[in-house]
Design goal:
With about 90 residues, this protein is mainly beta. The protein contains 1 helix and 4 strands, in the order αββββ. The model has no long low-confidence stretch (mean pLDDT about 80).
């Protein structure tokens, strides 16, 4: 882990991030994505986001779109589409 990545881990607690986790979007996604079916996934990369890239941040982790090239390192994200699936479990009584 680079020094910058270690500082980010200390500052943002990367232990809460998982590559399999799906995180809500704070900013509106581009078309054809929509907020009901779109989440962000961590790519495993930690660096300074470039303008227009998605990154993860916050006490409650969410995805943000970089309005400009940022000067601090963040966890880089990519958008994924999906759906929530509920399952029924029989009560064992």
């Amino acid at each position: 882990m680079t020094d910058d990545a270690q500082l980010l881990a200390d500052r943002h607690d990367l232990r809460r991030l998982t590559r399999g986790g799906r995180y809500p979007l704070w900013d509106l996604p581009p078309m054809p994505f929509n907020t009901r079916t779109t989440r962000a996934r961590w790519t495993g990369e930690v660096r300074r986001p470039l303008k227009g890239e998605w990154y993860l941040s916050g006490a409650v982790i969410a995805a943000y779109k970089a309005p400009a090239n940022l000067s601090h390192d963040f966890a880089i994200a990519e958008l994924v589409q999906g759906r929530t699936v509920s399952t029924w479990v029989d009560d064992p009584r």
